[in-house]
Structures are given as structure tokens and as C-alpha cells.
Amino acid sequence: MPLVTSSYRAKGLFKNAHFSTIYSAKIRQSPKLVQTRERIILSDSDFIDLDFSFTPGESTKIAILLHGLEGNAQRTYIKGQAKVLTENSWNVCAVNYRGCSGEPNRLYKSYNAGKTDDLDEIIRYILQKDSYTEIALIGFSLGGNLLLKYLGEREFVPKEIKKSIAVSAPLSLEGSLNSLTRFHNWIYRTSFLYDLRKKYVQKVQLFPELASASESKKIRSLLDFDNIYTAPAHGFKDAYDYYHKNSSGQFLEQIKIPVLILNAENDSFLSDRCYPRELASELKNIYLETPKYGGHVGFVGPNNIYYNETRALEFLNSNH
Questions:
Q1: How confident is the model at residue 1 (pLDDT cuts 50, 70, 90)?
Q2: What is the pLDDT of residue 44?
Q3: Per-residue confidence (pLDDT) for residue 319, from 0 to 100
Q4: ∠ at Cα 125 (310, 140), nearest 5°?
Q5: pTM score, two decimals?
Q6: Would the pLDDT of 213 be above 70?
């Protein structure tokens, strides 16, 4: 498909990647949204909490929203997307990954950028629970990588999944790790590391036979965290094995439904490999939109409605 020409325009300070990223994550007013929580028990006896929001009246369409690293279903970008969808005849299921709903999950393993088996269980649960004829997957950052890997690695996905959208998606996990290690990204990696180390300390208390306080002191970088926790907890040799096997860029050619990838050119979390322009121009199902501005999930729009939120709705309603 030809590359998508973006109509997104940023104004003033929002042309600055860091300003738009930080404003959107920390300052943006949280959209008003009613969420109803439902807990599902997974096949390995762990649990995931799902926060549902419903459109007035009946709907046969539901969007599954996937948050980013150390996010949850209450993040403003999730609520913003859910609000736009529920006001336009879509129901919404906002996922909280294992350990992200405010309560530690039951097992030593938790979530990662490629843990698609949990997503598959959620989709099958929703299909069994209600008679939806259309499902959309919308993922942000880590969640974008997750849905692209899910769609590309499986020979068959449920026929109800018609289209999907990945926003600010790190198609190369190692490339994004390298981007986050740059000096100008210190505020983000420091914030992530603070949250992740807290999670590891929690694991030390719950699983002393698998995690140790001495190891927690060695976690001084995101790479350390993935080497000490993410990789061994989820069956990978080391962090680089985890990055290599779970980066979604390698799965794009196998995706069989229309997918929009919306990655801003000035997103400081992303590397060059997160803009597969040549590949997208050759593939019929990959729509790559790379606006000049937008930072990381920072596509600020008027009236507290973000460009990516209306763009997702437009893509879902289009004839692609």
C-alpha cells in the first residue's frame, strides 16, 4: 500500500517531541469514562482484569485496547480512545496486563511486549461471552508491538478481527531500548525503571526462591531489568533473545488484515527500524502513517480529543 499522507498538524510547543509526550502522559485532563471491571482466570490459573465501557444501546462491535509499558486501563490515552469509540457505536474492552491492575498477579511471570497467548485468551473469552461480529485491536507503544506480533505470527486469527491500529509502536525492541538509553530520554527511562524495580522487589517478597534482593540492586538500566527478570521469567535466554524473538517488525509481512501503524517521526522512543516505509509500500495490508510531530502517544488535538483517537475511528470505518 502507498504510505499514508498524514493530516496531523501540531502547533506551538506541541511541535517539541518531549513537550507533547510529557504533556499527554502527565498533564492532559483525563476524559470522563465509565468503566466496569471484570476478572478473567487464565489457563495457567493467573488472572487478568478487563475494564469494559459500553456505547449507549446495542453494539455488535468491540475494540480491545492494549496499554504500554507499566500502563493500565486508566491511562488518559486509553480513556481518550475509549471515549471516542463509545460515542460512535463501539463497545470497548481495556486490558490491564498481568500485574498492572493495582494487584500483584499470582505467578512469577507477568507480561512482556510479545506475550500474545494472553491476548489470544482475552479475545476468545470475549467471543464466547458475547455475539460480536467485529473486533478491533488498538495498541499503544508496547501494546502496538503486541498486537502486530499477534496478527503476524498466527496462521489464523478469529475472523471477527477485521482491522487494527498500532500507535507509537516499537517495531524493533532493541532499537527502542537503544533510543531510550540516549541522554535526552533520561526522564522516561528513569520513570520506567522506578516502576519496574518496584515490581521486581514485589516479586522478591512473593517468590524468594526465584528472585533475590541482591539481584534487585543490580537493576540499574532497562537492559538489566530484562536480563534479570523479563527474559528468565518468560523463557528467554537473555534480554537480546527476548528482543529478537518479540519485535513485531519481522511479522508485518504475514499480517492478513488491514493495519494502521501511526508512528510520529519525532518519537524519541523509536529507532529507524520503526518506520518500515519500503516494506509498507509493498504490502497491501500495512498502512504506515508517519506525521512529522506527535512525540510518543502525544498527538494533541482540540477539545482534549487526540488525533490518533479520531484517526483510529476513521480507519475502522473506512473501506480498506
A1: low
A2: 98
A3: 84
A4: 30
A5: 0.97
A6: yes
Cell numbers at 225, concatenated: 531489568
Positive/negative CA dihedral, 128, 256, 231, 21: negative
Radius of gyration of the chain (CA): 19
Q: What is the pLDDT of residues 177-210, one digit of tens each?
A: 999 999 999 999 999 999 999 999 999 999 999 9
Distances (CA, A) of 291 to 256, 259, 281, 287: 25, 17, 16, 13
CA dihedral 285, 174, 170, 216 (to 10 degrees): 140
Closest CA to 110 of 187, 169, 195, 38: 195
| Cell 498481568 sits on residue | 98
Q: What span, in angstroms and rounded, lies between the C-alpha atoms of 300 and 146?
A: 24
Q: How far apart are CA 69 and CA 199, in angstroms?
A: 12
Say how far apart CA 293 and CA 129 lie, in whole Å.
Answer: 40
Written as nine digits, the cell of 16 is 517539541
Does 115 score more than 80 pLDDT?
Answer: yes
Q: Which residues contact 318 (CB under 8 A, 6 or more apart)?
A: none
Q: What is the mean pLDDT of residues 106-124?
A: 98
Does 30 score more than 70 pLDDT?
Answer: yes
Q: How far is CA 4 from the centre of its chain?
A: 21
Mean pLDDT on 159-163: 98
